[in-house]
Amino acid sequence: MSPPAPGASTDEMTGEFEQHARALLEDSVLRIDGRIRSRLNQARHAAVEEASRRPSFWRHFAVMPAASAVAAAVLVAFVLWPHAHPGDSIIEGGHGTVEDLDLLADGDALDLVSDETDGGAFYEWAVDQADSNEASSTGA
Amino acid sequence: MPPASHGDVELSDSTTNSPSRALNQFLAGVELKAFKIAQAALRHEDDALDAVQDAMLQLARAYSDRPAEEWKPLFYRILENRIRDMQRRRTVRGRVISWLPFRSDDEDDEQDPIAQAPSFDPQPPRKLEISEAMDALEKAIETLPRRQQQVFMLRTLEGLDVAQTATAMGCSEGSVKTHYFRALQSLRAQLGDFWT
């Protein structure tokens, strides 16, 4: 750890100067006293504890099922909305789209298409309603 | 990833998993040098400790999920921001205190603990020579403009390359080279007589 030689070139002197400075600074780091080291140790411990308490990125996926259900409902609504026209309504023409959405949002809607209930009867009733509406409007 | 350079802490069960161990090793490897860098900038032991502690916590909170290779420049970026905040706060506090009629002189006495640091055991000549050279270097570093001081410490003491130093300082690599060159020139001009 000797200082730069007086006769050296500028680059050599700069290199030697850097080495000398680095050696001195590293030596000064080694001389840091126990009180400072102890406090740094405590600070490090606290930081590591903090990192271990921090929720992992993957834990964010815990909310995925609920978010997926909401996203699916929005997607279904989005897909169905443009295809529904007032003339297509089978129940009280003009409000069919809104009622379709109500049915989708309603938990009972699942019963209409499940095997446990008589879903066919509903659709027969709906067709009859549509036919009777059409007949009445034609007769009028 | 440098190994822990000094006494590792005993970690609880919740922190013995691999990411926490990696973070612990990283922080153990940089904490002493980070303290010296903060101390050179702030010239106050407790403020330097606070800055390093805050930087550790911030790294753990915000960036512990990032790849370990990114930690060092991120850590020093956080540390430099913290140092700058403390310097600004100190400047404001100094202005306020200078207006107070009952200003205490103790405020100034606390500014330079490095110069006032007590020497403990009797030193042999070689040790004394190193100690004097170190004091001279530290005082010369303190006189550097902030950016030059910053780049000199990051490159010389921490051994960051130009790109990492630029990331840590939030500037271009060209600026790093310029600041480093000027820092070396200035230090050589100041210490040339002392070291030759």
Task: Describe the overall structure.
The complex is a heterodimer of chains A (140) and B (196). Chain A is an all-alpha fold. Chain A has two domains: 10-54; 63-139, no CATH class. Chain A is 67% helix and 0% strand. Chain A has six helices and no strands. Chain B is mostly helical and 196 residues long. Chain B folds into two domains: 1-114, no CATH class; 118-196, Arc Repressor Mutant, subunit A, CATH 1.10.10. Chain B is 73% helix and 0% strand. Chain B has helices spanning 18-42, 45-63, 71-99, 106-109, 113-116, 125-143, 146-157, 162-169, 173-195. The longest helix of chain B is centred in the middle third of the chain and has 29 residues, at 71-99. The radius of gyration of chain B is 19 Å and the shape is globular. Residues 1-15 of chain B have low confidence and may be disordered. The chains are: A mainly alpha (140), B mainly alpha (196).
Poorly predicted ranges of chain A: none
Derived structural class of chain B: mainly alpha
Q: Give the C-alpha Rg of chain A.
A: 39 Å
Content-based structural category of chain A: mainly alpha
* Helix and strand sequence of chain B: HHHHHHHHH
Shape of chain A: rod-shaped
Question: What's the main sheet of chain A like?
Answer: none
Provide the fold topology:
The complex is a heterodimer of chains A (140) and B (196).
Chain A: H1 10-30, H2 34-53, H3 64-80, H4 96-105, H5 109-113, H6 119-139
Chain B: H1 18-42, H2 45-63, H3 71-99, H4 106-109, H5 113-116, H6 125-143, H7 146-157, H8 162-169, H9 173-195
Helix pairs in contact in B: 1-2, 1-3, 1-7, 2-3, 3-8, 6-9, 7-9, 8-9
Keywords for this structure?
heterodimer, A: 140 residues, mainly alpha, 2 domains, 6 helices, B: 196 residues, Arc Repressor Mutant, subunit A, 73% helix, globular, disordered N terminus
